[in-house]
Each structure stands twice: as structure tokens, then as C-alpha cells.
Amino acid sequence: MGLFSPLYLLGAFAVALPIYLHLLQQHKSTPLPFASLMFFEKRTQASIKHRRLKYLLLMALRIALLALLALAFANPYIKRKLSADDGSQRWLIVVDESFSMRAGTRLEDAKREALALLDKRGASDRAQVAALGANLRLITDSTQDKGELSAAVAGIRGSDTHASYAELTRALRSIAQASPEPLDAHLFSDVQKSALPANFTDLQLPASIRLIVHPVADKPTPNWTILTTSAPAVLWDTKKTRVQATVAGFDTPAARRSITLLANGKAVGTKAVDVPANGRATVEFTGLDLPYGAARCEIKTDGGDAFPQDDRAIFAVERSDPRRVLFVHEARDTRSPLYFRTALGAGAESSFQLEAVTVEQSANLNPANYAFVVLSDVMSVPPSLEDALQKHAGSGGSIWIAAGSNTARKPTIPLFGEAVNEGKYFSRNGQMFAAVGETDATHPSVFRAARWEGVKFYYAVSVKPGNARVIAKLSDSTPLMLEKKVGEGRVLLFTSTFDNLANDFPLLPPFVPFVEQTARYLAGVVDRSAATGVGAFVELRSAKERSVNVDVIDPDGQHPLSLAEASKVQTYQIQREGFFEFRRANGRNELIAANPDRKESDLAPIPKENLDLWTGSGRGNGAASTNGGPAAQEEEEKPKYLWWWVMLLVLAAAAAESVLAARYLGVQREEGS
């Protein structure tokens, strides 16, 4: 037995106080009336009788109360053994099932060593089996059934996820919080360095957990892999397509690798690339002639290492015709369509096809046949086209209006509906130009265009915003870009022009991303990658698309969503490598390719000193086992604090002292009456 804070025992000297009070209680005499004292003999009164201790039981309780308080603050404890005397233990068998365990025979070796450890388990020992990937997956409950435990280990098949030792430690902390009973966690893994968290404190183990690591790899393994790929998700022009791949070597010598591009299982091209020792190299394929629709593409290297599963990277490409854009302008205006067409072609990589027509040619055109419509400073809109545009916007279409001197002649902006105040010529107001002031950086038209810095505006139409969203303002607070909801669609208003007369915007670099991003926004083109990673979430529906069924088809052709999930779930998490087909609520089908995290391709193990720090942070020393058996199970002692029991005695003594003190007080009152 010991004391955590022995200095608090000095408080035991307070027991002298009740002794002092009980010893020096003064004698109290009751005065009696008497006629005369002349016949009494004068003598000294004896005081010994009045100095004796009184109420011994009450005094003992008060002394005990003070002594117990001092003992409680001293925090007494006793040491107890963590391991039971009968040798009974509680085990957690964790087998790493991450993607890197597919290299060589790592997974089979880990399962074999785990089964060998279970064979050495005592009859009274309880064990639980789990698999480690991005999260810790518990396979069994804690049990003594050897058959159930062995079957669980044998049934681990591996996954395409990345390992996370931080998640393992977090799960061990949760287990320790649920039960303070000591636990031996046996990890069978390739102890991959890339699975370590950035902060080592995330690996701190609880005091009741002992981590014993059984490595199935103790040195770096040379490995080449396709590290990254760059390809368009949507293919508009087969001649301008570029597909790039980065080949990386981990702990590898310098070598020449052969890289092959395949589309729908057919080789499209092959190139050789020299990869430096433990380095990277890039290869590029130009031109990708694919049929219309979704194509399953793949880039692979010729392998030659112990981990062929990461020698390829897949991606999905959809070939489609460019989306048509209707550009309506005045016949004498030749600059606006030229600048707009050039910017749209340079930024959107041929994903849009501009059809420029004059106002006179637009009367019989149907806006529904176009991704969006641009009205470039037109003096008037034919009534038939205006009616068609109103219906188009009401049903979800998009319209972009550029307002210049022609538009300012009208009292209101066509389709936008807000009143025109005036046209501002800044050179006539004593200023040569106006710059952009405030901008809404969250809008697609602005956030990739460097906030239009350096653009000079010589003319702008002053419009009352009304209930429209103001996206950008000039330095004098004149609205420059506005957006308004019209029915289910949207109308954008740019209060200047697309030529170089009212501004110099078309002559500056920000004009290209401005036109490109606004076009994508109006056309509803969602930026997406040709491939994603295992573990990523894919959105299936918007908040408005409730109770509309969606469907997911996995690489095996199975439908993982139940009927209830198909009408409710918002997202789907990809758990494996391969091509997934998503049939969304809006009727659009999309093919998505998923690749394992390339961190798993670096097979370097954790340095021994870091591994020792991790395993030594919990209960005892979790030294790694090299023969598949458990580490030495030394008996260890852990303090068990007794202050709680001492405080219970304090409460009992205080209650008894109160009862007894009240009783003696009543006796004193009776004697004094």
C-alpha cells in the first residue's frame, strides 16, 4: 500500500483540536440562593475532577473524521496485478486487409500467423477477430469458440482500401473506454509507413491496452506503379485529347518501363519511358478515338515486381457532341461574337459550339435546342423569340444578357425585367475608366477569374438590382454582374459588352476563365474527374429529387442498393476498385472509375524506433513477435486508488458524529434545566 500525496497526512495533526475541546471543557455550577456565608469554611476547590475527558465516544468519532479526511487527501492506493493468477487473457486479433497486403503473400502470411497464435490460446482465454483497412472492422464478438475465431480469420479476403493506424488506435481507445479489463491487441500487418498519421500523438494507446505487432514484411520492397493519370472526363474533340500518366518507382533501380493505353480492352498505344532510381517519369498519349458513349480506359505498365495489382490505373471517358450555344447580336456588331467564340473555344476545350446569329435571323429559332442563349447588346428581341425565351427560362433554361448602349435605349432589360437608370460613360464623368470593386467570390463567374483585376470599364448600364443577386460591382457601386431566377431557370446580366469598345476585358487573360466558367455554369456542366479513389463518396441525387429511384451497378454487375435505399440515399461510398455505373435521379447515366490510394504502393515499413514508440505507449512493452507466438506476458502491477472507500468512511463517521452530538446536547439541556 502507498500514498499518492503523503504530505496531506500532515492534516492529521488537526486531531488535537477535539482532544483539546473535550479536555478543557469548563465546569459550570448552578447558583443557589443562600441567606449567609458566614458559617462556611473558606477552602480551595479541587479542579482535577473538572479536567477529565468527557464524552469519549464523541471525541473518538471526531478524531476519526479528521484523520480519515487527511488520509483521503493523501490518496492511498494498493497495487494489483493486471493479469489474473489463472492466466486468463482477453485478445483482439487484427489482420491488415488493406490494398498493400495483396503484394506477394503478405495477406496469406498474416492469416497463417494469426491462426497459429489462436492455436496457442488458453482454454479460458477470450478473443475477438477484426480486419483493418480505412477503419477497424470487427468480425466476431469476444468468444472462446476456436472454430468461430479461426473461420473469421480464414474468411478475410483483403480489400482495396488504405490502412490507417490512427483509426486502429482510435478503435482501441473506444474498446478501453467500454471495458477497463486489460486487452492484448495482436496486429498482423506489413506495418506500412504510409499508414502512419501526420501527428504521432494520434497513436497514443490507453493504459489497459498492450499492442503486439507481428510484421509480415521487415524491409522495403521494390515496386513500380502508375501513380497518377490525367484525362478528360468528357471527350468532345478526339484529335485534341491528351492523356498523361506518371510512373513512379519506390525503392527501385533505374529502369525502362513500357506503358500501354487501352480503351474498352483494346490497346490504343504503347510508349517506353525511363524511370530514374526511386523516381518518377511522365508519359503522354495524344488523340483518343473513341465511340460515342462511355468508354472504359486503362493505363498499365509492364510490371516485373511483387505487386502487380497496382501496375494499372483505370479511368472513364464519355464521348459526346459539343453543346450548342446560341449567340444573338446586332448585324453591325462583329467584335462580340469573335471575342466570345475565341474565349469559349480556348477555355472549354471544344465542349461548346457557338452558333452566332443576328437579331433578324433569330426569330424562328428554338432556345430549347441550345445549352444556353446569349443576347449580346441587342436593341430589340423579336416577339416570337422573346416568348420562346420566357418559356425556356420558366422551364429551367439559362440566358445570358450583355447590356450596352443599345440595351440602354429601352426602359427595362428584356427578360431580366429591371428598370434601366442610365448608361454611364466614365470618361465623361471626369474619370477615364472604372475598375471592378466588390465581387462575390463564391460565384463561378468570378472565383477562377482573379476577380477581374486590371480590367478597365469605359461604359456600363446602370440597373436597379431589385431582387436580383449582385455578383460584381464597379468601384462606384454600379452593378456589373447580376443573376435573377426566372421560373425554374436563371438569367445573368452583364452590364457592359463583350467587345473591346465598352471595356478592355476581351483583351486580358481573365476574360477566358470568365466566359468558360459562366458557360459551364449556365449549361449545368459539372466539373468531374475521369477517375476517383476508393473510399470516395458519390452524390446520387439533389435535395429536390426525393423519392425518385436511383441505381448503382458495381464492377461485378450487381446492384448493391436495396429498394428502400434506391429511393432515399443521397450518396454512395465506393469500397473497391473498378468501374461503377450510376443511374441518377435526373435520368443521367454516369460511369465512374475508382482506383486504390497510391499511398499503398509505397511498401516501405515503419522504422523500428517509431514502431517501438508506438507499441510502448500502452500497457507494457509490445515487442514485435518474429515467430508468430505472443510476446512475453509478464505480470504487471497497476495502482488501485482507495480514496473513494476512505470518503465513504468519512461520510459514515460524519453521520455518526452528528447523531451522537445531538444526543449529548439534549442531555446537557436536561441537566441544566
Pick out the low-confidence regions. 621-635
How many H/I helical runs?
12
User: Based on helices, strands and strand pairing, what is the structural class?
Assistant: alpha/beta
Using DSSP, what is the number of strands? 32
Provide the gyration radius in Å.
41 Å
Kindly give the count of domains: 5
Strand content: 25-35%
CATH class of the largest domain: Alpha Beta
What does this structure look like?
This protein is of the alpha/beta class and 673 residues long. It has five domains: 110 residues, no CATH class; 163 residues, von Willebrand factor, type A domain (Rossmann fold); 97 residues, Immunoglobulins (Immunoglobulin-like, Sandwich); 201 residues, Rossmann fold (3-Layer(aba) Sandwich); 65 residues, no CATH class. Helices cover 22% and strands 28% of the residues. It is built from twelve helices and 32 strands. An eight-stranded mixed sheet has the order 17-16-18-19-25-24-23-21, sandwiched between helices. Strands 5-4-3-6-7 form a five-stranded mixed sheet, with helices on both faces. A hairpin with a 5-residue loop joins strand 30 and strand 31. Helix 1 packs antiparallel against helix 2, helix 3 packs antiparallel against helix 4 and helix 6 packs across helix 9. The longest helix is centred in the last third of the chain and has 30 residues. About 2% of the residues have low confidence.
